[in-house]
Amino acid sequence: MRVLSGMQPSGQLHLGNYFGSMEPNLAYMGKAEESFYFIADLHAMTTLHDPKALRQARKDIVRDYLAAGFDPKQAIIYYQSDIPEHTELMWILSTLTPMGLLERAVSYKDKVQKGIDATAGLFTYPVLMAADILLYDANLVPVGRDQKQHVEITRDLAVKFNNTFGEVFILPEPVIRKEVAVVPGTDGQKMSKSYGNTIPLFGTDAEIKKAIMGIVTDSKEQHDPKDPDTCTIFQLHKLFLSPKEAKALAQEYRAGLGYGDAKKRLLEAYLEFFAAMRNAREALSDAYVEDVLQAGAARARTVAQATMERVRSAVGL
Ligand code: ADP
Ligand code: TRP
């Protein structure tokens, strides 16, 4: 079984990325025969045209991954742009991609609505993502719910390719953890870099405190009973707790735990949970990160080249 996932280097990683994508991927890492984790730097170019920022963000996100526990002995970690086969396969797939399939992509519409330029790259983003996945014969793709449709598009394209040219691709399955399908941001909407409502994973203590203290609540008074199910503080705190602990905390909310205290406790849980990772990040040397990326790219390239041989031969190139 092969597991694969990608992450765009388009800003600081946040709690939603951790629980929606990184943690489920970490859980699979030891179980997979081989896992592939890449930095989707070409995808990031659909929203980022600042070379300095992209260079920095790519490097930062690799450190974040390594600090979070992605182990280069068990996982292949690389930059998407180091493997040119991604864009080559994307082109071939795009010749089979119906416009209507892309027109139905919710993520494209959302992004354009948020003011991101409607470029051909943004529109064909799902085709590049399909190439990312199909190149490595990935069986499982652990992602947050917002990426599910992209994995379905990948399946559609794999079926279309196989029907046209013969069986070349394996159909991947998305893996979505129900209980953390959508991590809410400090304003209660989905946590997202583009909404400015994130709690960063590797921010300074002050940044994290500011974000948590700024979580929006309703106007209930200090000792009023609170509804844990609609409270963003509780929904976030729950991510750090066992079901039993979460139940006990929910009881405290109902018994009138004040929002200020609730936030302080969330902050403590947060800092405790991520302390080891934050220390580990400090300890990573540039040379080590560079080595990981080179070894990762070498292994990824071998797999990608073998797939492209199959593809080229199937299509008549
Ligand atoms: P953002 O919305 O902040 O730009 P990305 O789109 O880069 O995040 O998402 C990277 C990964 O993290 C994807 O697998 C996505 O599904 C997951 N993810 C992002 N935000 C959340 C969230 N609020 N809840 C759950 N998963 C999330
Ligand atoms: N589109 C994904 C996101 O924004 C990142 C990504 C690119 C990806 N290629 C992928 C995720 C392949 C899984 C598999 O989160």
Account of the protein in words:
The chain has 317 residues and is mainly α. The protein has two domains: 212 residues, Rossmann fold; 79 residues, Tyrosyl-Transfer RNA Synthetase, CATH 1.10.240.10. It is built from 14 helices and five strands. It has a three-stranded parallel β-sheet with strand order 1-2-3. Strands 4-5 form a two-stranded parallel sheet. The chain starts with a strand and ends with a helix. The relative contact order is 0.14. The model has no long low-confidence stretch (mean pLDDT 95). The site of tryptophan has 14 residues, from strand 1 and helix 8.
SSE topology sketch:
Blueprint: E1 2-7, H1 15-29, E2 34-39, H2 41-44, H3 51-68, E3 75-79, H4 85-94, H5 99-103, H6 106-113, H7 120-123, H8 125-134, E4 140-142, H9 148-165, E5 173-175, H10 205-213, H11 232-237, H12 243-254, H13 259-283, H14 286-315
Parallel strand pairs: 1-2, 2-3, 4-5
Helix pairs in contact: 3-13, 4-8, 4-14, 8-9, 10-13
Radius of gyration: 21 Å
Order of strands in the sheet with the most strands?
1-2-3
CATH class of the largest domain: Alpha Beta
Q: Care to count the β-strands?
A: 5
The end-to-end distance, rounded to whole angstroms, is 29 Å
CATH-defined fold name of the largest domain: Rossmann fold
SSE order: EHEHHEHHHHHEHEHHHHH
**Structural class by SSE content:** mainly alpha
CATH superfamily of the largest domain: HUPs
Bound molecules: adenosine-5'-diphosphate, tryptophan
- Write down the overall mean pLDDT: 95
Q: How many domains would you count in the coordinates?
A: 2
- Shape verdict: globular
Helix content: 40-55%
If classified by CATH, what would the architecture of the largest domain be? Answer: 3-Layer(aba) Sandwich
> Helical segment tally?
14
Q: What portion of the residues fall into strands of 2 or more residues?
A: 5-15%
Ranges with pLDDT <50 over ≥5 residues?
Answer: none
